[in-house]
Amino acid sequence: MDMRKLIIASLMVCMPFGVSAQKAFKDWPDGVSPKAVGELVSKRFVEVPHPNFNGNPAPPNEITYPETCAWFGALRYADITNNKKLLRQLEERFLPIFGPERRLQPLPDHVDHTVFGTIPLQLYAQTGKEIYYQMGIWYADEQWKMPRNTKRKEEYQALLDKGLSWQTRYWIDDMFMISAIQSQAFFVTEDRKYIDRAAAEMVVYLDKIQRPNGLFYHAEDVPFFWGRGNGWMAAGMTELLGLLPEDNPNRPRILESYRKMMDTLCKYQKEDGLWGQLVDDPTTWTETSGSAMFIYAMIKGVKQGWLDEATYAPVVRRAWIALVGHIDKNGDVAGVCEGTNKTNDRQFYLNRRTLLGNMHGQAPVLWCVNAFLEK
Can you tell me where the transmembrane regions are (predicted)? Predict the structure, then answer.
């Protein structure tokens, strides 16, 4: 173990339980503070080219959702810290999409593609430029509009008739992707239709796929509590609750499910402070992207009063210090599970590779930073 990890390990052991959230979330050792981590990881995002290039000579086909989620996190960080230089860099990364890099813009034909609209909506919120608004709202609207020239019109119409997005498929990552774009559309327009339909969609998913212990299978036919998959649901509920008006009729149901999940996650926190590749088995290897999503959900919960401070503040502090121990000097997060499709084979999940600096991990680290820093 190198000296940095040894110091972090000792900090975890010595962390005082029962400490108030105000102190737990502000008194940080050198190199562990959210501000320091945010500077490092956001700088790294700006340095890295569109990552689905993967070193191949052929140009990337389109920007994928992990990059979108990291970009969204970096934009929020720029706003919270009033970092105008970073905002300019993030905008300059986007502008070629209107011209020479137009091919990189994904179409709103799938939940993983439609979430791209969060980037122009955040750019609009921070710059006021109408071109970003028009692009972002187009993504949000298309998620509830029958796609052209589809061969599945009857299937999609049945979903739309129920008030659901035609992109509904009942996979756990959907409820971050849908919640993020629709919540951002509500944020910039204040039109309740966006957030209300996202909340109604969330309740249908909760009724369909949440298990009695509060966790989620990867899909209905895959009975494993995969870490990052559960992270998407935790982050999705958190994202939605953060903007959902108090008088929304679905809010109590979503909050109840969120709390049930957080309670179970506390029980499965590993000795190292994080969570396993399979959440309900602490003997499985530590996975950082799902862990970061859980931390994000708990930070917001404590600060918003959704969770008991005395119970969750120590859990968060211990987990955050452990997570920072997996970030190297370049700002790359280690221990990130590679992209993982659903498979009804437990060993498949345990055999997944880990990728250093993969955007699946970079993104939720930035979300955690923002949750710590926002007022």
Answer: none
